Automatic annotation (TrEMBL):
Key words, A-Z: Cell membrane, Membrane, Transmembrane, Transmembrane helix
GO cellular component: plasma membrane
InterPro entries in alphabetical order: Poly_Biosynth_Transport (IPR050833), Polysacc_synth (IPR002797)
Keyword Membrane found: yes
Matches recorded under PANTHER family: O-ANTIGEN TRANSPORTER-RELATED, PST FAMILY PREDICTED COLANIC ACID TRANSPORTER
Keyword Iron-sulfur: no
Domain of life: Bacteria
Identification of the protein by name: Uncharacterized protein
Natural source organism: Lacrimispora amygdalina
UniProt topology in membrane: Multi-pass membrane protein
TM region(s), chain numbering: 78-97, 118-140, 152-171, 183-206, 218-237, 249-268, 288-311, 331-355, 361-381, 393-412, 418-440, 452-469, 475-492
Compartment(s) where it occurs, according to its Swiss-Prot or TrEMBL record: Cell membrane
Length: 502
């Protein structure tokens, strides 16, 4: 009997071990299959996918941190953090010239044999601008502090951030240009985690009146620390040699882009400010929840654009226009699908993001989603202008559209409510895409993209989003459209996967 029981136990454990081995084998086969698919992808696709993952991780952590900090801090203290973040976004452009987003890509092409020296030279130029801004601030801080509405200690932290963070951004730009996505992904994830954990721990330990200052210092210390590391690394690699010819090159290219960057900030933020002034803050809250969808789509676009920009510069240098045309069509086709999906699922998205009192925000999603599609459109054309160093035309287009957006918001928001802000923004982004197309055509490079297809796709996206916004009350029709779109995606899945791999 004992022998029989032992034999049964033995058979039982053998079967368990066999099942585990089969499970492990299936897992290994799955991983091998996944690795083969990953290896088959182009460097641009790998880089884009890795950066999308890193950006969503960063954004997800940011969304989690919001409720955490609002529960351990007072509203006034949390307001200081919001003020700091807003001013940091604007002042960074002025204090560092924001060269990582402009002249850096051109320098990687024009000075490919001297990239280290170019990077070090423009880093020193950015630091010089920061020190000049620092001098102005400390000379006039009695008058400037009421404007910034922040303690001097936070302004000092911000200035340190401006000194060291450009080094990190230049390193990121160089890695993207060479499609070294692993380092970017790892650093982004580690930095986000460290910043979040350190901020929570420090805020919990701080006294109530210093929680805001502590949170900012803890979060920024991580960014500054990473920046210091890359700051030193860039100095060592360049052997401390500054070439002032690169300063002239960078200033001629990037100074006209400063109004462009500031105008883009106005274009993306003025609608919420004007809704608060012309209607009320409750309407702004509803609009802001709906605009979260645009924020998610922009994460996708910024990640794709970060990899696409270096690639397009390299293809332009080789005069490989056909490849640019094909990829441009694929990118816009992908974003048109994303726009339509977000518009179709607007009611469900709002239900997830906010309570029933915010449900009127569903009518904002179609216009802001289509606005992101036009962001992708104008970015494709603008990349050609930046490659050709036509930064003044970029500045003129963006500044004109930003002013128009303010005028349209002032006219239509009081008349039609906060929903009008989404459509005025859509119109402005559409005009911006048209202006950049006209500039590229004037420069003789309109043949680089399939303009007729882009126009047709743009008209289709606008038409379908407007139609969808009119059928939100008809659930069966909307779900039928979702089913049809899902069926098309299933039928065309191989083509979609093939496109994403490229």
């Amino acid at each position: 009997m004992i022998f029989g029981c032992c034999f049964l136990y033995y058979r039982y454990f053998l079967s368990i071990a066999s099942l585990q081995n089969e499970e492990n084998l299936r897992m290994m086969n799955y991983l091998v299959k996944y690795k083969k698919k990953w290896n088959a992808m182009s460097p641009v696709a790998k880089s884009s996918m890795a950066m999308i993952f890193a950006k969503f991780f960063q954004k997800g952590l940011s969304m989690i941190s919001g409720p955490v900090f609002t529960r351990i801090m007072s509203s006034s203290e949390y307001g200081i953090i919001s003020t700091f973040t807003s001013w940091q976004s604007v002042l960074y452009i002025i204090a560092t010239l924001n060269m990582a987003s402009g002249v850096f890509n051109n320098g990687m092409i024009d000075f490919k044999k001297d990239r280290e020296s170019f990077t070090y030279s423009i880093m020193c130029l950015a630091n010089l601008c920061t020190f000049l801004c620092m001098g102005v601030y400390f000379l006039f801080y009695r008058w400037l502090n009421p404007l910034f509405d922040m303690p001097v200690s936070l302004m000092a932290v911000m200035l340190l951030y401006f000194i060291f963070t450009p080094a990190y951004n230049y390193w990121m730009g160089k890695q993207r240009f060479e499609y070294r996505y692993k380092g970017i992904t790892a650093v982004t994830i580690v930095t986000s985690l460290l910043s979040f954990v350190l901020s929570v721990v420090c805020v919990l330990m701080a006294s109530d009146q210093y929680k805001a200052v502590t949170k900012v210092m803890a979060a920024e210390s991580v960014s500054i620390g990473i920046g210091v590391f890359f700051f030193i690394s860039i100095i060592i690699k360049a052997k401390g040699k500054i070439k002032f010819a690169y300063w002239k090159y960078a200033l001629e290219f990037n100074l006209p882009l400063i109004p462009h960057y500031l105008s883009m900030y106005v274009l993306s933020s003025s609608d919420r400010i004007m809704i608060s002034k012309l209607i009320n803050t409750s309407a702004t809250a509803v609009y802001n929840v709906a605009y979260t969808v645009a924020g998610i789509m922009l994460i996708f676009w910024n990640a794709v654009d970060a990899s696409y920009a270096p690639w397009i510069y390299q293809q332009m240098e080789r005069e490989n226009y056909q490849s640019i045309k094909v990829r441009g069509n694929q990118v816009l086709l992908f974003f048109s699908g994303l726009t339509i999906l977000c518009t179709l699922f607007a009611p469900e998205i709002i239900c997830i993001l906010a309570p029933e009192s915010y449900h009127s925000g569903i009518y904002v999603i179609p216009s802001v989603a289509a606005g992101v599609f036009f962001t992708a459109c104008y970015s494709l054309y603008m990349r050609l202008e930046l490659y050709l160093k036509k930064t003044k035309t970029v500045m003129a287009a963006t500044c004109s559209v930003a002013v128009l957006n303010l005028v349209l918001n002032y006219i239509f928001i009081p008349e039609f409510g906060f929903v009008a802000a989404g459509y005025t923004t859509l119109v402005c982004y559409g005009l911006l895409a048209f202006f950049h197309y006209c500039c590229v055509r004037h420069l003789g490079f309109s043949h680089v993209y399939d303009n007729k297809r882009i126009l047709g796709l743009s008209c289709f996206v606008v038409l379908i989003t407007v139609i969808i916004s009119e059928i939100y009350s008809y659930m069966m029709i909307r779900y039928s459209l979702i089913a049809v779109l899902g069926l098309i995606m299933v039928i065309k899945r191989k083509e979609i996967v093939k496109m994403l791999k490229k």
